[in-house]
Amino acid sequence: MKMAALCSEFGDLVQIKKQLISVISLCKERGLLHSTKWASELALALDPLPKDELPPSVPFTEEDAQDLDALTLAKAYFDLKEYDRAAYFLKGCCSQKAYFLYMYSRYLSGEKKKDDETVDSLGPLEKGQVRNEALRELRVELSKKHTAGELDGFTLYLYGVVLRKQDLLKEAVDVFVEAIHALPLHWGAWLELSNLVTNIEMLKSLSLPDCWVKDFFMAHMYTELQMIKEALQKYQSLIEAGFSKSTYIISQIAVAYHNIRDIDQALALFNELRDQDPYRIDNMDTFSNLLYVKSMKPELSYLAHNLVEIDKYRVETCCVIGNYYSLRSQHEKAALYFQRALKLNPRCLGAWTLMGHEYMEMKNTSAAIQAYRHAIEVNKRDYRAWYGLGQTYEILKMPFYCLYYYRKAHQLRPNDSRMLVALGETYEKLSQQVEAKKCYWRAYSVGDVEKMALLKLAKLHEQLNESDDAAQCYMLYIQDIFSCGEQLEHAEVSTALRYLGQYYFKNKLYHEASLCAQRCCDYNDAREEGKALLRQISQVRDQIETPSADLFAPLSNNNTPVRRVSPLNLISFTP
Questions:
Q1: What residues make up the domain containing 523?
Q2: Domains identified in the chain, total number
């Protein structure tokens, strides 16, 4: 959406503030705590309203008045998580508000019993058949009301949740869209819908109301679908439209940068977020992932201790402690804390994935596979779980399984070089060299994170006796490494220099061969070969050297798209 159009939607921030205050009241009355929290955080980011501009309370109907006492009592029981008791006193009430709370109490009662039974009877990885027994009855009752057109926006949302829980996903999508049209300001319905959207085509096909909340939804969806550039543009537009103080938006931008592995930018935003909201626990598991990747032990230790002081029984706290122990290579303890996180919330995606990683470290492949499969059940868009399954089957030497899971990961992250390199390695094992070459070249083209794609492509050309292409790839690899100014993997750089030295020597380019041989002498594992090559070159120095420009004249007919680089360019870079 263009900025002008966005500003027109967000032109009246006072009206948006009034809408947020109204929906906060509506959600709070119905026990929808996460939607209340989201709307409250956004409302705080906007300027306060004068007393005479505050929105009026929702008018009472005659049914509301009749149900008031029962509803007040039931809401007190609901807040104390006595769901069966709340439902008992709401039975027979007629108002929309009371009916929603009655059905919602029954649903949450079933969920609580299911979770208790799961924790009591099953290990963290066992695939039990525990079900919410209330779902079938709820679906039948809500379906009748839906057919009669008697459901409001909140009850439509609950009906959608029940359908999703019963794996009736297509019907759930339709009901959530209907719920959003009935009540566009209810963030919970948008969020539930986001979990069912699998790709950009499906997102475009949805008929959604033109409301300012849609921009928040689209930004969230772009992040989920790994369309990070679009997500960041959308969030920037929201900031410019008036939500610059929103901690929700800062957290989402930080998550977006985390997803594209812009670690420094993400860390800076998370630190800013903690300055603004020091007791925040939401998203701190993602923050701990970044600290883990950067091996920032003191900072991760401080974060873990800080969160334990705030609330040690939160899922995010358990994940942070798990990451801390994992960084200290105490994988059994790490797995234990991820298991604790899953007891608190069996649908915690990050905990399943991280636990899979820990089981991989402990060489427990069967447990790792189960953990990754659970992660995929929670969210089929989690590329880390698909990639983890690929790695697990790679250890088990099952390349066809590897290929399937790496392809899935690549579809979710088409521009992630790690997925492409993994695919290339698998194709190599399956003797599909043409496909392997394409993957390695693509990995280099999209920005090779680990600087391995060109090296693997060069070695593949070398195995296939495609010496011209191998030399080109080795040259690009060395130039890439030296130009980045990174710490060099000496063995790999020396491998490239050894090959290039021999290649130039065979092509009678003794000057370039001599330079490569001298460079080889800088590395312990290549020193003897470098000296031997220098001796060979000195024996033929009296011969006429072939001009450098002729080096790539007899180029091979191989289809790998290789950039033509003068061999002398290599010499201008120093390690």
A1: 489-542
A2: 2
